[in-house]
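Task: complex structure prediction.
Instruction: return structure tokens for all chains below.
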Amino acid sequence: MSHDHDKKFVYADNAATTSVHPKVLAAMLPLLGEVSGNPSSLHQKGREAKQYIDSAREKVASVLGCDAKEIYFTGCGSESDNWAIKGAVQNYLERNKTDKCHIITSKVEHHAVMHTCKALEKKGIDVTYVGVDENATVNPDDVVAAMRDDTALVAIMMANNEVGTIEPIKEITKRVKEKNPKVVVFTDAVQAVGHIPVNAHDLGVDMLAFSGHKFRAPKGVGGLYIKSGVVCKALIEGGGQEKGKRGGTENMPGIVGMARALEIANEEMQDDNARLAVLRDDLIRRLLELPNSRLTGHPTKRLPGTASFTFEYIEGESLLLMLDMMGICASTGSASSSKSLEPSHVLLAMGLPHEIAHGSLRLTLSHETTQADVDYIVECVTKVVNRLREISPLGRN
Amino acid sequence: MYSEKVMDHFTNPRNVGEIENADAVGEVGNAKCGDIMKIYMKIENDVIVDVKFQTFGCASAIATSSMATELIKGKSVDEALELSNKAVVEALDGLPPAKVHCSVLAEEAVKAAILDYYKKTGKDTTELEKICTGCCESCSAHDHHHDIPTDED
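Output:
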């Protein structure tokens, strides 16, 4: 069955990563060539590089609705997540001369947030993992109810990487700040920035993480918004780069590329999203026609390109590999996709039983996805699900 | 990640299906762990004349089921009892360490089917009763003879 279709290829894993936009590559090339200076140098080559990085910071700030001085460049989304969480906690501990405090996060966070919180837990920091409803939405009431006198940080993602649900970050932030304005609110917006409108000042959050390669910049560059007046201790000490907050000579091509990519994403967002939502909804409607299939994540408050499902009686890795052989790149939260025995923590937190969570599939579309691609995905997923169900002993009664 | 043989047996699994009025049926694993294997046998004069399987699981679970059925087809029940997970892994040109438990499941599915046959034919089942439940968790919990690498990295 894998050879029915020759050379057809559909990349439907854009939440994992995207391809570099040609205009982004063009913007980066001078930084890999003649613009070779170190922005920390005082001489002309340094000043030239400094202009590029200043301009990049302005562009990013303008799209994210904040001031340039509030944008810090990092090596990736995971670094931004680690920095925000550890930096905020460290500041709380130092300010309050204590070695104990409390963090509130959710059960559906990306591993970069979840594992950072787990690591802090081992060091004696208390962590509350608030649950979600069946659509993976965090209830602001639950966050507020979890707040304690020693709560230092609330870390809730803006959009879920597995099921695409958009969380009520503005509401959560407002409610947390009403109860205690000193609590730092951080959002991992890695899946949101470049895909849905994100305005840092309007959201009211204190910190917000993003990653370039999720919106057509290259891998290896990310950023963290830190609101003016909010203190986040440095994670990487060094030669005073990023106002002494993040050491290390700047990834100039990456930073310039990320700024250009964000500008392009912002310009094209409205048109792209209108078109994407139509394709996504068509894909969802047609795949839900398969018996014993379900949509995971919020039915409407979801990322425009994300369609995620479970198919009962089959296992996600098998599904993924058969689709791969048909030229379709997708993703699964099944246990087999990782080394653990557990399926996706996100699907389990949404209340799905293990056996159903093992049969998950995530398809994430992009500006390049066409109606013909969606037709092909529907045709192939239908074939593969039916084929794997023929092999499976489940669902026969 | 997977050998060509694994991919071959995954994409074109041999002996898929069920046998009506089978002389032996064995099922191991559970849906919670993400693997279930069910093996059906037609046995004549203690020889496995036909064998079929149904598997819910990852690519290596399907491939090991397929290979295990190939290895025991036409063999005597006694010979089939000697099938080890290691033999299944070797016949597939290897499995990633994290997937070796699938070969254990295949071995146990064969043994579970033969246990069923022993019970139906009134043979002594003492030795076979010791087989594990087939859940991936129990595989690491009991000290069996399975060949599983301890370091999964």
